[in-house]
From TrEMBL:
Protein name as catalogued: ABC transporter ATP-binding protein
Domain ABC transmembrane type-1: 50-313
UniProt xrefs under Pfam families: ABC_membrane, ABC_tran
Gene source species: Streptomyces seoulensis
SUPFAM superfamilies to which the protein is assigned, alphabetical: ABC transporter transmembrane region, P-loop containing nucleoside triphosphate hydrolases
GO CC, one annotated term: plasma membrane
Amino acid sequence: MQIQDLPYSDPGVPDARSGPRLLWWLGRNQLGGQCRALLWGLLHFASVCALPFCVGLAVQAAVDRSAGRLALTGGLMLLCGTAIAVGDTFLHRAAVTNWITAAARLQQLLARKAAYLGSALTRRVAAGEVVTVSTGDVEKIGWFVEAVSRFTAAALTVVVVCVALLVYQPALGVVVAVGLPVVALAVLPLLPRATSRADVQREKAGRATELASDTVAGLRVLRGIGGEDLFLDRYRRASQEVRHAAVRSARMWSVISALQVLLPGLLLIVVVLRGVQLAREGRITVGELVTVYSAVMIVNYPLRHFVEIAMAYSFSRPSAQRAARVLSLQRLTNTESSRTSGAPGGELFDPASGLRAPAHGFTAVVCGDPDMAGRLADRLGGHAAEPGRSVLLGGVPLDELSLAQARTAVLVQDKDPVLLSGTLRELLDVPSSGTVRAEDALAAAQCADVLDALVQGSLDASDPMDARITERGRSLSGGQRQRLALARSLVTDPEVLVLDEPTSAVDSHTEARIAEGLRRLRRGRTTVVLTSSPLLLDRADQVVFLHEGKVAATGRHRELIGAEPRYRAVVTRETEDEQHASGDIAAPAPPRERPDPSDGAPLLGALEPLEEIEESA
């Protein structure tokens, strides 16, 4: 796989049972690139380690005053230098290709998982963790995948050097063959502690990233309530924790790096002392001593990759664990249906709450708990809270449909919809039935002032459809973003459209016009709106009131407002004291054990409800 061939036509099905299994799966799927990097790495490292033998031959030729052998060793050194340059160039190219392609494969898998789960992803995994996985963690995982081939080449080269020294000069070769494994493996006892500290650093960094993401997303609200300093202090404390954890992790890695310098130095001293003793005894020549000394010095270069692979694994393992956690998420019921006749139609029924939304009608749902409304929206979108409790559309469980069929049948607009950067034309270029024009959807969503704002903010766009929208629509107000998202949903024109608080950020006059436009444009389609706005509720064909997750009342808005006190409390924002004062909720019953009348308690007990009424008034 080459970089120019990205993205993958099919990134494959990952082994997300654990972090190490995911790393192994990524490496196995890049076997060709790993083999190329291994071969170029062997050429590079072998040529580097062959230089000491050439130097030893040259020194011995000079001692023996042999011009022929000196010229021959000069040619060998030139050949080794050329092989070093070629091997290093193509090793770097192959390694970077492995890094980028592994990261690209993982990013495609994460993007596919996000598209598969939709808004349910951020309800099951924190948004900051998703950002961390798709950015920094992907890079660390790619680093480990590409480092494996270089480490393998370095390890094989060290083995070859040890064998060559044993054959070339057994007396000194034994010292090197025993010392090099000790040097390479001496840091292994320190790796668990270094890995645990790296894990703590990654965990704290993920928390800081999540906090920063949440702060940026709510910056407009924070400025409105003056909470910027509070969240700035929280992020400052989180960043300091990350800094302290990074310093502790760096200390351990500095100890490991120091050992990687100290131990080879001690080995070199031992080799020199032993070599001088053997040279004095006449058992080795000067050229052989220079060769072994140079070989021990040069072999430190491939030994560095032992530390690098340890660092790469310690940093990539928690990253791979987080990525595997995201990639392992599934719809709770994931039965792919064999239906080929398209998406079903009919009544929408949620067995968990008892909600029934008639086909081709405009149903409004009132929930006193915003979290409960979000969970209901997830279920209506095909993400059941538990297996066997799927929403039914025309009597067919959504979880028995393929994901494509379910999304064609039901579209859920989240309470906080996201606008991608690009032109307005690109924003509205979504899969649709083709029945609703973009102009009609924009008009129904009351986007006239939004179009004017986009044109004024674009220097080179006279047509609003060519005006650019910044990332997440940050240049627009909350109400403007909400209306553009509503227009995008209306253009899609699904069989069932579920809207979670679609007008919470607009004024009442605009909201009334949106309600009329929504009802007009969605005529003949099923529309479910989760809202507590009287303007939307008054225009619904049916209003369903949920209390503690279950259907408590059904009817028209004007009927429920007078007949159902709990419904009126949610819609009109009445407090409990106001409900007591209006007589909708009876006063609490007196305690069963009555005190002695002689102490005046009955009189005080009778006055307490009156005092509460006076305070509420």
